[in-house]
Design a protein that fits this description.
8-stranded antiparallel beta sheet, about 20% helix, 2 domains, about 325 residues, alpha+beta, 4-stranded mixed beta sheet, Jelly Rolls
Length: about 325
């Protein structure tokens, strides 16, 4: 999950997001060529080199499979990929009906419509237009109020006061809650859980990522990480995409890093991708190379002590 580190004295809960960005290693491969005798041979080699350079610069060479492409429509049932559960969950209190006993990753395009995704994207655009990071990654957390501003974060409810009511409406919050409930339901059905034992947890937030160079470590969203390790409360993680890979942005695909090879999910507006949060689902996000990628990260815990309420205007 691609997240942003936070240092904010104003937003009480916003410091939770600071842990989310983790350093890792970005692996790229280059291409080389050898010269040949003769002018014609050199020209042919030059053409091949140009094509190879373009290809290697356009895609991550360590991706070995596409789980779901942008052009596919996964409906009406989720496409589920089961993986063995890690031992991460043994280090935490177990909650019957919720603690993962069947682990994996899944994708569906039938939970949120493209029209609803457009409404949520416009909400994200309005909120993030109030400020935004100096680098390529910005967040808006409606629960804590955290909003990227330059190289730090502010609380939108405190910083903008009543003006925020011109940006976020009660109808926006209602759609946000409805979508959260639907996501929670499909996760529970897919992993055979008791939905009443699942709780929304923090951080849950909008993200906007573009190709602007990182200015601080907060902007380095692309490093590999494990959600359960970063946040002990996490048990299930979901990404709701609000823009389309290939037309709204390039790069920015979600990559599961497996021992047998990496696998990717290509974002599509309205697409819901969710997975158990342990080390069985180590992942990262490709660097966005063009355009703007919008998404919502929605997180769930089995521990009621770490549950949070749906957002509302103060």
């Amino acid at each position: 999950m691609a997240l942003v580190r936070m240092r904010n004295a104003k937003g009480g809960n916003s410091t939770e997001i600071e842990k989310k960005i983790k350093r890792g290693h970005a692996l790229r491969q280059g291409s080389v060529w050898r010269g040949y005798r003769g002018l014609v041979a050199l020209l042919l080699v030059a053409v091949c080199v140009c094509r190879t350079w373009w290809y290697m610069s356009s895609v991550d060479s360590d991706i070995t499979a596409t789980l779901v492409s942008q052009g596919e429509l996964v409906s009406p049932h989720p496409r589920v990929y089961t993986v063995p559960c890690s031992e991460d969950y043994e280090n935490y209190k177990r909650y019957p009906g919720c603690t993962p006993h069947r682990c994996g990753r899944a994708v569906t395009d039938s939970v949120v419509s493209r029209e609803e995704a457009q409404v949520l994207r416009r909400l994200a655009e309005r909120g993030l237009a109030l400020a935004g990071s100096e680098g390529g990654a910005s967040i808006l957390d409606l629960h804590s109020g955290a909003l990227s501003m330059g190289k730090q974060f502010v609380n939108i409810y405190r910083y903008f006061g009543d003006q925020i009511r011109d940006v976020i409406t009660p109808e926006d919050f209602q759609l946000y809650r409805d979508v959260r409930e639907r996501i929670q339901t499909v996760i529970a059905e897919t992993f055979d859980l008791d939905q009443t034992q699942m709780y929304l947890t923090k951080p849950t937030f909008f993200s906007r990522i573009n190709s602007t160079a990182a200015q601080t470590q907060h902007d380095e969203y692309w490093h590999p990480h494990i959600d359960k390790v970063t946040y002990g409360s996490f048990d299930y993680t979901c990404l709701l995409y609000l823009s389309d890979y290939g037309s709204d942005f390039t790069g920015g695909r979600f990559v599961f890093m497996d021992q047998t090879g990496n696998q990717t999910v290509e974002p599509r507006a309205g697409r819901v991708s969710f997975f158990s949060s342990g080390s069985e689902n180590l992942h990262r996000v490709e660097k966005v190379t063009w355009g703007t990628r919008y998404a919502i990260t929605v997180s769930f815990t089995c521990d009621p002590a770490h549950g949070i309420s749906d957002p509302a205007l103060p």
